[in-house]
Amino acid sequence: MRLEPNDGKGFEFVDKIKGGNIPSEYIPSVRKGIESAMGEGILTDFPVVDVKVVLLDGSFHPVDSSDMAFRTCGSICFKDGFMKAKPILLEPIMKIEINTPDDYIGDVVGDLNKRRGKVESMRRYRKGAQKLNGFVPLMEMFGYATHLRSISSGRANYSMEFHKYVPLGKSLQEKILEDFKNKKNK
Questions:
Q1: Are 155 and 100 in contact (CB under 8 A)?
Q2: Where in the chain is the domain with CATH 3.30.230.10?
Q3: Which pLDDT value is given to residue 21?
């Protein structure tokens, strides 16, 4: 099988088996094995996303071939190929909208910058208030509602929704993988 990135398009499975090297009744089993491996996670316990798998070749044995054998083989082959592809961790980026009185705009923007956020736009919301739009990693947003109330004397509010996944920085990825490895060894 060949693995390819499939940016933003989720999982895609393409069967290019020619000449019956793998009987057609076993192709869905290979796919299920791959999907199972993706759901369990390989680098960490996080699922694998945005991968295109092209099934190119294989073989079968008239006696020993079974649904479970092809499912297991699909899973093992995917894991092996995935690790050879030098995978990266992705982090969810959230689109955020913050409504705040003018008096607190500097504190809100400063706090967003500390959280690795990026302000996309600011505009007048109503007299004496601003509306900020931007993007921020979900990892940095835990406890934000309480903190925002604190820095704005309870007068600002926000909403956020998922925007997209982006690659995690190399140093942060190494730290997360190290923490995961240590946690698993305990």
A1: yes
A2: 2-84
A3: 82
pTM exceeds 0.85, yes or no = no
Sheet with 118-126: list strands edge to edge. Answer: 118-126, 129-137, 90-101, 157-167
CATH for 2-84?
Answer: 3.30.230.10
Question: What does the pLDDT read at residue 154?
Answer: 92
Question: Quick check: helix, strand or coil at residue 179?
Answer: helix
For 90-167, which CATH class? alpha beta
111-144 residues labelled b (16+ CB within 10 A) or e (exposed): bbeeeebebeebeebeeebbebebbbbeeebeeb
Alpha-carbon distance of 173 to 48, in angstroms, equals 15
